[in-house]
Amino acid sequence: MVLQVQTSTYEAKTQEIAKQLLAATQENRSFFSSLRDQMRWDDKLLAWAMSNPGLRVQLFRFIDTLPALHSKSEIASHLQEYLGDESVELPAALKGMLNFANPDSVPGQVAATTVGTAVETLAHKYISGENIKQVIKTVERLRKEKMAFTIDLLGEAVITEAEAQSYLERYLELMQQLVEASKNWTAIPAIDEADGELIPKVQVSVKLTAFYSQFDPLDAKGSEDKVSDRIRILLRRAKELGAAVHFDMEQYAYKDITFSILKKLLLEEEFRQRTDIGMTIQAYLRESEQDTKDVISWLKQRGYPLTIRLVKGAYWDQETIKAAQKHWPQPVYNDKAATDANFETITQLLLENHQYVYSAIGSHNVRSHSRAIAIAESLNVPRRRFELQVLYGMGDKVAKALVDRGYRVRVYCPYGELLPGMAYLIRRLLENTANSSFLRQNLENRPIDELLAPPIAKEEKNSLTLNSHFLGAADTDYAEEEVRTKTAQAFQSVRQQLGKTYLPLINGEYVNPPEFVDSLNPSNFSQVVGKVGLISVEQAEQAMQAAKAAFPGWKKTPAKQRADILRKAGDLMELRRAELSVWIVLEVGKPVKEADGEVSEAIDFCRYYADEIERLDEGVNYDIPGETNRYIYQPRGIAVVISPWNFPLAIACGMTVAALVSGNCTLLKPAETSSVIAAKFTEILVDAGFPKGVFQYVPGKGSQVGAYLVNHPDTHVIAFTGSQEVGCRIYAEAATLKPGQKHMKRVIAEMGGKNAIIVDESADLDQAVVGVVQSAFGYSGQKCSAASRVIVMQPIYDAFVQRLVEATKSLNIGEAELPSTQVGPVIDANARDRIQKYIEIGRQSAEVALELPAPKQGYFIGPVIFSEVSPNAVISQKEIFGPVLAVIRVKDFPEALAVANGTNFALTGGLYSRTPSHIQQAQVEFEVGNLYINRNITGAIVGRQPFGGFKLSGVGSKAGGPDYLLQFLEPRAVTENIQRQGFAPIEGAD
Questions:
Q1: Residue 444 catalytic?
Q2: Is 784 known to be catalytic?
Q3: What is the model's pTM?
């Protein structure tokens, strides 16, 4: 029976211990007082950052950029750009240092050297060494101070399989060298043994996701297999060497799968009795108390203890922002006090179960450590089962005071090259300079009672409100196991419906057409997804007459009523989300996550356009005394929507519901290869309550039925998404007045792009490589927004291409329905053959940097990367619409922009840069409808990134934006003279 002691007893003891520790750490606390003028530059930078929020942001952004800057001139110019920003109030010393006219000047070089050295000194404070030799020196110094250690390897993000393998090999090498060095270390009883048991002198800390570059909760089984293979190698070698291994916890999305993998692995016969292994709990997560209880239950079942390291958590900003952007519940506490209170709860939980778990309490907060000590002493927790941890360079005085009290202290020591370690450094600097940081509050001489007060959590919501009038649908979070189960069930259900027949819907009735075509699964073309009926021209005429008859009634239907029907359609899609995603996966070969994102977009179109029509329906009043002036809108008439196969639900839905909610009767002619999904969309619109004749589903051959509807004199609006060739033909035909036509037709056409991403020499290459790979090869490059050119500055060209090739090699190519797949098939045989022709053309004029093999059973093409491509080459100018990427070398930023703008298209574009002037210049000069900076260039979100281009990329307003519905409406102005015999009511007069 575990001894339970009342919390009040713990509190009294906590206060007593904390005051003693604080007294030991507060000698020489003159950080902000008399010594300010004698501070070194690194201390000055930190002190300024604490006192000036604007400087803090810009300074940390500059430090983040520093690894990419290779000359003093670059450092000097970036210093001026970041710290010369208007938002930054500079201290006099810094202002004076930055007052140089030219980055190449002597003052510029001096500024670069001073700040560069200061940042390097800062980095040395938090990073224990740049190589193993330096690390050994650091840990030997720590051991002299009676402190144990754990080593963490810093470096670039693992985005390729070569890097994942290298990560494993570097850890094997690290353990080998540390153990070799440890043979000469004198045993230190305080840290090397406890309760008659030896404790490994060497411990390393590893991150699970770094063992597999494609680690993804959606592919739980595949990720587990790949990661477990490498972890077994690591654990076996650690046992041979006598080293301990600790598993860090990373982002929330990986938490459940990390626990699942480790629990399964550590129950295997080979590892079950090991007690030299640990895992981590993050107290800022709302689920962490339950996770702790689950781990303790599992450890009871396992029968052998493991270490649980308890930390607050290091990714708070990232988690908060991601959840807000995705419309997901906040996984972390928003309030620091709530995290601190939870930390104490879990500390107690761990220590009260000390016979099952070794507790490692990681914090720099004197109260948190004191609380742990108070509980451990009250419960007589054996020394082996309890230790305290701090980060290298943080809380050094606390660590010394804890050692002096006889506790085992372990220092978490990151090591690696200083510059790639900047991301880690910035997390530490943010932590040190945050208002809520204990270390900062201690430095600022806060009253002791305030510093040591028990944390009291505020009431808090578990979501962060976005500053936006429109809240979009939340994508599915595949990190949740029950969601993955639901997706698997949806696949089973849909498979039982494959091969069914889908009839056209004309005037509210499903009609028999003269012809049927099979819609095939592009991942496996022997599988028929459905048989689709194609209407004849005569049936197209019947549909047109039905629309004509229905129009007067639909036009008079109040906008609010139309909007409510549309909202109902959005709600029905949300209910059928998993099933709709599966139809998209199977009919057009789009991988699961991207299919789910498409369903979100379709739902967003329904809800956004419903809101928009209600806004527009209010009209505008321009009244003056004696006269009312109303500006109002009315529907145009009959809309013909010709939708593409690449976004078979989202684009078909967006164009169709915009026309419908605006009061137009609408005929939807989908692409033949995606007509089953359009039939499912039809079911939803019918169920939502759109009246007969108002919406009609008219699949047919584009050359016959499409052409007939475009040229019909009763067509008022044509909304088209597809190729430039067909779009231009529609535009020309619509301009011709037909016999009996009494209006000009409005054409809205989105016609593709030749989208470029510029990567300049200041870019974060981890981010740029991942973004380019996603943008170029997501959905096999078959998005109108996909990147087909990447324009890279000369200094980083070779390094970028090398990592791009390795990252692309690491992608999984396969059937779209497999959870591991990132690159699926192309849509059909025609597309496959056309793309192959462009690849052959590319071979004649550029170097093949990579060509991946592809499965044979579907319409597959492996990703192809061409390097040293001329900006004017065919593959740099023509839209290929497949997984083919041209990498173009340029000497400077003006040339990069000129090359980017040097095509007939202007749809999407991207820039990876940390140079403020480049970002500013691109915003003005990069000729694209949608410009994305430091992120991938696909996945526009309704109401957030309205989508559409200009030049030959299209005509019309942006989908999902405030102007889009105006294209389906006619504006009218109505003026009434309200004077009678010279009398008119005047507002405000008696």
A1: no
A2: yes
A3: 0.94
